[in-house]
Specification:
7-stranded antiparallel sheet; 36 strands; elongated
């Protein structure tokens, strides 16, 4: 889908400059680019204009008829989108069986391709580019959020989704497993020992020994910071090296000294030493009171030195600050540890520590499954953040409030659940951040310390809106999970095909859809599929031509750019598109549509070698008047011809010569034009202007 829409909109950088299209999306882009369909201008205006007022749109896919030979009845999908000038909240909705028949059978097909699932409910900023890992979102629950094509002993090819992710309304979203979060288990990678972490070139990297082999693996860690919620999302660009390893000690640079940590040989005591000569010699060996059966990890973070290890006997992860001392005489030493934190996380190997982007990262191998895990902490306490989290994202145009808790009764859940949460966002221009935070807190003191899966709660917004949130995320797929108490629509199956400020289906599910955009509320684009054999698309360009005028101007500009790059064939193709649109818009409303296009027509004629000797104001008027003058028709014929004159000829002279030709009617459309008469008019105008006696029109043209 990304490939389809990027082909429609073009790909730009944050400064809105065109950039190279990603090769990974070339196939879907080719499909959409060669298809006749294009989204109506209203779709571009609503999607790409950041200055529109906020709106909520809901899509009900309708029930499709059962296909012949199929035993399945395809359930209607449901999607919900709230758009504000600075952000979009999307609900991936309900996607169930395909209707193609025998979805439960995995023979020669991949059931993941035939049955879809709920997508992540996501808050997406619209004024900055970001990767998926940095977005605020709710993962589908209880479905596992993994690559459907990953090798899995449980055979995900036949997996059928259960999750219902439709918890979205105006400015608000709710669901389970809120991301970013301070912990992530990597289900795609595994290790039989322990990982290592290190920052490099602005990125944090993770290395590990493979599970069942000794191969080294290295990948970039996806840490999150853009939306000011501390978290980690796994790794990307993992590579497997040809080298192998067993284990090693820990080393860290801190305030100009090199420090070494290790587990004793023949004993389990942890030890520390330091070097002042860049590792040539080590001194000040200190044996700590803590012990481990594995190597420790050491890192400098926030001007403090941290040590992490796996506890002996219980396997729990430990993190503590190393206490160092120094005096004015230059003395330096290691006193011991302070602020030790014992986590409930258990590992059978050494942990890893790293400092990156003001966060302390902890990595480890899981106790049972040999999965890699990552966790972050800003202060080294590694305590859960919350329940309230506030992000002042005024530089992106909005604020975010999130309320996140662990489930109240986790033992009653068949599938483990990380958290339940709600997210509320609003434009920064509407309210200052302190007021936003204070009102959100004071109006929601009733929220419990732990949200209960299946529970129903009320949330009150800073602008006096009241929502009911239902934290049941499977079954009853058309029951709303977030309901506005002032506009209670709880049964979403009653929705028409489309509904919202700019979309509506007046006939419900009969196939009639109306699309509006700001300024065109009374003049919609109409998509009429009520007669499947003869669908109708009625545009609104007569009432709202501006997008089409801009499209025409873009075609003229593109033709000029191709011309400058020496791509004559592409330039002529773009120019032909521009001329056709110019003609269509003139026929609709010449007085309104002609003047903004006339300068582009004059410029394009100039590149062909056709200029003018009358005033430009007069020429503008004539080029916008196809009913009483031949200028639009003759100009279009000149531009469509592909001719490039060696020496310029006046347009007004060409028109004069054409019209005074005997037995020739003054043209009002391109279809009225006679090419032989036009060539003769140009030839006469050129000879008269340049004092030549050329008799062959072809001699006037550039090669």
């Amino acid at each position: 889908m990304a490939g389809y829409f990027l082909a429609y909109t073009g790909l730009t950088d944050p400064q809105h400059h065109p950039v190279r299209f990603p090769a990974s999306l070339d196939f879907p882009a080719l499909i959409s680019a060669t298809a006749a369909y294009r989204p109506p201008p209203a779709a571009y205006i609503l999607a790409m204009n950041h200055n529109n007022s906020e709106y909520l749109h809901r899509f009900h896919h309708g029930t499709r008829p059962r296909l012949r030979g199929s035993t399945d009845i395809a359930d209607a999908g449901l999607e919900i989108y709230f758009r504000s000038p600075s952000f979009l909240i999307s609900a991936g909705g309900t996607f169930l069986n395909s209707g193609y028949g025998h979805d439960e059978i995995d023979i020669g097909v991949n059931a993941w391709e035939q049955t879809s699932r709920a997508q992540a409910t996501t808050l997406i900023p619209t004024r900055v580019d970001t990767g998926f890992h940095d977005l605020i979102r709710f993962e589908p629950f209880p479905d596992s959020f993994v690559d459907p094509y990953a090798d899995d002993p449980e055979d995900p090819d036949t997996f059928h989704a259960q999750a219902v992710n439709i918890g979205v309304h105006r400015r608000i979203a709710a669901g389970a497993n809120l991301r970013p979060a301070e912990k992530k288990t990597l289900v795609e990678h595994s290790t039989s020992t322990y990982p290592a972490l290190a920052p490099h070139a602005g990125r944090l990297l993770m290395a590990w020994k493979g599970s069942g082999n000794d191969n080294l693996n290295v990948a970039k860690v996806l840490d999150t910071s853009l939306l000011k919620i501390d978290g980690v999302e796994g790794v990307e660009r993992a590579v497997t090296l040809g080298d192998s390893t067993d284990r090693s000690p820990a080393l860290a640079s801190h305030n100009g000294r090199l420090l070494l940590a290790w587990r004793g040989s023949g004993n389990n005591q942890l030890n520390l030493a330091f070097s002042t000569d860049d590792g040539i010699t080590f001194q000040g060996t200190t044996t700590l009171g803590d012990s481990s059966e594995h190597s420790p990890s050491l890192v400098s973070h926030g001007n403090r030195l941290y040590l992490a290890w796996t506890g002996r006997g219980d396997g729990k992860l430990n993190v503590a600050k190393v206490v160092l001392f120094g005096n004015t005489a230059g003395g330096f030493g290691i006193e011991g540890l302070e602020g030790k934190v014992v986590l409930d996380e258990i590992s059978t190997q050494s942990p890893a520590l790293a400092s990156h982007n003001e966060l302390l990262f902890l990595g480890w191998k899981g106790e049972g499954e040999e999965k890699l895990n990552l966790r972050v902490s800003r202060d080294g306490a590694f305590q859960p953040v919350g329940p309230w989290m506030f992000s002042n994202l005024a530089h992106l145009g909005f604020y975010v409030a999130a309320y996140r808790t662990p489930p109240a009764q986790p033992d009653e859940l068949v599938v483990p659940l990380d958290n339940l949460a709600l997210v509320y966002a609003r434009e920064a221009a509407d309210m200052d951040f302190n007021t936003f935070r204070d009102l959100t807190l004071t109006r929601n003191t009733h929220l419990p310390a732990k949200l209960d899966y299946g529970g129903v709660y009320e949330f009150h917004t800073p602008d006096d809106k009241h929502f009911t949130i239902w934290f049941l995320l499977v079954g009853q797929k058309y029951d709303a999970r977030v309901v506005d108490q002032s506009d209670q629509v709880s049964d979403l199956n009653t929705l028409p095909l489309v509904s919202g400020e700019y979309l509506r289906a007046p006939g419900g599910h009969d196939g009639l859809i109306e699309i509006r955009h700001p300024g065109s509320e009374q003049s919609p684009v109409v998509l009429d599929f009520r007669n499947a054999e003869a669908p109708v698309r009625a545009d609104n360009r007569a009432a709202h031509p501006q997008p089409w005028i801009e499209r025409g101007l873009a075609f003229f500009a593109l033709a000029e750019k191709f011309e400058q790059d020496g791509k004559r064939k592409d330039a002529q193709s773009s120019l032909a598109d521009a001329v056709r649109l110019y003609d269509e818009l003139l026929r609709l409303n010449p007085e309104q549509n002609g003047p903004p296009l006339a300068p582009a027509v004059i410029r394009a004629l100039g590149r062909c070698g056709v200029d003018f000797s009358v005033s430009e104001t007069e020429l503008h008027d004539w080029l916008a008047n196809p009913e009483y003058t031949p200028y639009p028709a003759i100009s279009q014929a000149l531009l469509l011809s592909g001719w490039r004159l060696k020496a310029p000829v006046f347009l007004d002279v060409i028109v004069w010569n054409y019209e005074r030709t005997r037995r020739v009617t003054s043209p009002r459309t391109v279809a009225d034009m006679r090419t032989d008469v036009l060539k003769a008019a140009i030839l006469e105008g050129s000879n008269s202007r340049h004092g030549t006696w050329v008799t062959n029109f072809e001699q006037l043209l550039q090669p």
